[in-house]
Write a structure and sequence with these properties.
Blueprint (H helix, E strand, L loop, with lengths): L1 H22 L3 E9 L3 E8 L9 E5 L9 E4 L9 E6 L3 H12 L8 E6 L11 E7 L4 H15 L9 E8 L3 H19 L6 E7 L4
Parallel strand pairs: 7-8, 8-9
Antiparallel strand pairs: 1-2, 2-5, 3-4, 3-6
Helix pairs in contact: 3-4
């Protein structure tokens, strides 16, 4: 019976070693943006990093905890030369991470990244009409999708079958809309300039008031 126990243990140890090796690869934080509603945007670069829309990564900040890892959905597009995440203050670890970056003016805190993992969103490009519905910070996968679709538009990508997108976002406070508003406004302007003003229809719903 010990053979049945040994095999999973070996696989687990191998996975842990692989994660440590991936995490030790250098990550460069190229840009830090503090958005309203305590949302931190980190733009990063890592050698050999490849992503698809809708994927997520695990990040660790040794300055806060050596062992604590947290998952975050990527908000950048595969066509960009960096990868980014948006982090909302929603607990002790995220609060401390945001405070750490706000306090560091000259030297960025070290960030370790494991991933990317999973993707359930890339099939959106295979349909002529797509409806995207997000709530709160859960809108982050759609930032990646909308950016990627726009890049495919610009490059006249023949694999893009999408002709119309309906995007709905529900949020409880007005401040949370601010960080995503720039992307929507930019997409709207560029699509209007290219004669595709009706490609994206979006509605934002405010469900609370502070």
């Amino acid at each position: 019976s010990w053979k049945w126990v040994l095999a999973p243990i070996i696989l687990y140890v191998f996975e842990r070693i692989l994660r440590v090796w991936r995490a030790r690869q250098k990550v460069v934080v190229t840009k830090v943006v503090m958005h309203p509603a305590r949302v931190l945007e980190l733009q990063m670069q890592k050698k050999g990093f490849r992503m698809e829309v809708g994927q997520y990564i695990f990040i660790n900040c040794p300055a806060i905890s050596l062992l604590e890892w947290h998952p975050f959905t990527l908000t950048s597009a595969p066509e960009e030369d960096f990868f980014s995440i948006h982090i909302r203050a929603a607990g002790d670890w995220t609060e401390r991470l945001i405070d750490t970056f706000q306090q560091q003016k000259l030297e960025m805190p070290r960030i370790e990244v494991d991933g990317p993992f999973g993707t359930a969103s890339e099939d959106v490009f295979q349909y002529e009409v797509a409806m995207l519905v997000g709530a709160g910070i859960g809108v982050t996968p759609f930032a990646s999708i909308l950016k990627s679709i726009w890049y495919k538009f610009q490059q006249s990508d023949q694999t893009l079958k999408t002709k119309k997108i309906y995007f709905y976002w529900l949020c409880r406070d007005t401040g949370a809309f601010a960080w995503f508003n720039d992307l929507l406004a930019s997409l709207e302007q560029k699509m209007a300039e290219s004669g595709k003003a009706d490609f994206l229809t979006y509605r934002l719903f405010l469900t609370g008031w502070d």
